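User: Can you predict the 3D structure for this chain?
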Amino acid sequence: MIKELSRSSSKVIGYKVSGTITREDYETFVSQVQALVEQEGSINMLLDLEEFEWEKVSAWGADMKFGHDYHKKIAKMAIVGDKKWEKWLTKLVDPFYASQAKYFHTTDMDAAWDWACK
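Assistant: Here is the predicted structure, written as structure tokens:
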């Protein structure tokens, strides 16, 4: 499931990503991101991956398409998590999903929001 966080604001959108992500999850997520990009031009994003497990194989194409379509429209992407592989994932996100990406431990959620909002 990908659920928008209440702390989201005009140019900064945050999501809680939990469980196993499906292609249908991406369809909802992408429509929300598209609407904000159309309104703002470029955006910053925060992804809370603390409860994320994995993606179904059927979601991989939607994930890659999202990166292709939006990597020039996402100025910053804060990745929040508590696993080593999530920190590694941030390095992958940087060139393919956003102009800048930075990892934050779950204990640093406020710092992640502050960074994403600047």
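The mean pLDDT is 87. The longest strand covers residues 43-55.
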